[in-house]
Each structure stands twice: as C-alpha cells, then as structure tokens.
Amino acid sequence: MKIIDIGANLTDPVFRGKYRGKQAHEDDMVYILDRARSAGVVGMMVTGGSLHESKKAIELCSQQQGQLFATVGCHPTRSSEVDHYPEGADAYFAALRNLIDSNKDKVVAVGECGLDYDRLHFSGKESQNKYFLRHFELTETTGLPLFLHNRNTGGDFARIIKENRTRFSNGVVHSFTGTAAELRELLDLELYIGINGCSLKTEENLEVAKLIPVDRLMIETDCPYCEIRPTHASSKLLNPAGSGEEWEAPETKRKERWSSECMVKGRNEPCTIRSVLQVMAKLHNTSEEKLAVHIFENTCNVFFSNIEHSF
Questions:
Q1: Are 131 and 82 in contact (CB under 8 A)?
Q2: pLDDT tens, position by position, 231-282
Q3: Would the pLDDT of 34 be above 90?
Q4: Helix or strand run (H / E) with residue 126
Q5: Which keywords has UniProt assigned to this entry (predicted)?
C-alpha cells in the first residue's frame, strides 16, 4: 500500500518536542517518520503557510531525501504578514517565487492559499482576497498546481476560482468540510477534494464525503491538527483495536510521559492517515487497498507528474 499525505504541518515545533515555547521531550521527528513509513506513507507534502514557513518546509524536505516535499505560499490567515513585510508585497511574492525556482526538485504546489472568513481576527477580508489573487500569478508562471484553503467564505472562494480557473492546471481544496452543494460546485470547477479527520466530524460530513468521486479524492492528516476523535461520527467506522487488521493506530501518551514508541496524545501525526483511509473506504464500500490505489494515482498525477521521486 502506498499513501501520500498531501497536508502535513511538520514545521510545527511540537514535532520537535516543543509546546508553547517549552521543550517537553526530545526531538522525535525520526520516530514520527518511521511510524509513517510503517503505515504505508511513502510521501508527505509539508505545508508552507508563510514565507518563513515555506523556507522551513524546504529545509526539512532537504534533510529527508525522497520522502518529503513542500508547498510554498501564504495562508489566508497570514495575509497581514504581507502587508507588514518591510520590502513590500511585491518583494514578498518575489521571495516566494525565488523559493520555488531554487527548489524545483522539492516544491510540488503553490499554497497553502485561499480564503478563511472564520478567523478574520488574524487577517481581514480585503487583505485575504488581495493576496489570494497574487497566488494565481505564481501558479501561472511556475506551472505548479494549487493547494487551497476555504472556510466559510459565502461563495467568494468559488467565485475567485471561477474567474481564474484558466490560469492554473490543477488544485486540491484541502480539509474540505463543506456541504453537498459546495462539493458539487468545486467538482464542477474540476478541483480535487482533500479529506482529513476534520472533514469527518458529523453525520452530515460523512454523507457529503460519500459523494466525492474516487477519481477526485485525496487524503491528508493536516497534522498536528485534525485527528479523528472519539466524539467524531467517523470514529465508529474505524477498525476496533485487536481486530487483526494490518494496521492499528499506535498507543498514545501525554507529552509528559513521552515514549519513542508512542504518539503524543492530542498531537496528530502522518501515520494516522490510515484512519482517514479506513473511514473513506467504508463510506465508499470498497477495500482500503483498492481505494488507496486510486488516491495514490490522483495525488501523483496532480503533484508529482513533473518531479523526480522514488515512490
């Protein structure tokens, strides 16, 4: 089984054992990556949410040859950073472009970019819309697909995509939590849909997830966030512990009781993408193996068709 996690925030300090500025345990990135490989994860896209994070993502990818790849962009909630960039917005996006051009063997998408009206206290609508549009210049000039974010935008996101659809080849709307109507609109725009634990919280989420065509589906963890929790509607679809299935989620412990063999409680990590796969396979009434093949092909076709890899 081969799986690619299209959204992993591996530059977050928690993956180095640091929580809210304090070192709670040793850097355990090597164990995290080992658990991912054991779960069938052959590749991960490390999300760049700002110029600084994009640089960090590329640095991390350079340390892990063949397994990690990066996205480069500015998350909508970080749009205000562009306004305050000392050299101005043009220089900020020129720096993003330089990162892409200088690391063509590692950068597989422009983003994370889009709109997020749930968290306007970080960046206002005007700033988000203005800099979302600048990402179309990046995708147009580099030929890279888009890694997209959309939260409670009242149609603005779909409208902007529609108006600029001829400027980019492909894209995925990651961490999708929308309605059936919103799903149809995005599918009509020939976009792919990324599903993680946050996409599968409610019964309505599950009904919508069933509607995603297999040839438009990708999966992710969005770690360290978006794990499937016991309170989520999807948790009842997970294989029970001791069921004899090929993969079971590792034991978790609180960070104060850290162990290299265990996941940290409340810190999602890439190996749990198998839980997302389990749920989606049940929703689509197919085997995990068959669904994984389709998802792997989708992901490779969109993000890895023009880049050397060893999957």
A1: yes
A2: 999 999 998 876 666 788 899 999 999 999 999 999 999 999 999 999 999 9
A3: yes
A4: helix 125-142
A5: Hydrolase, Metal-binding, Nuclease
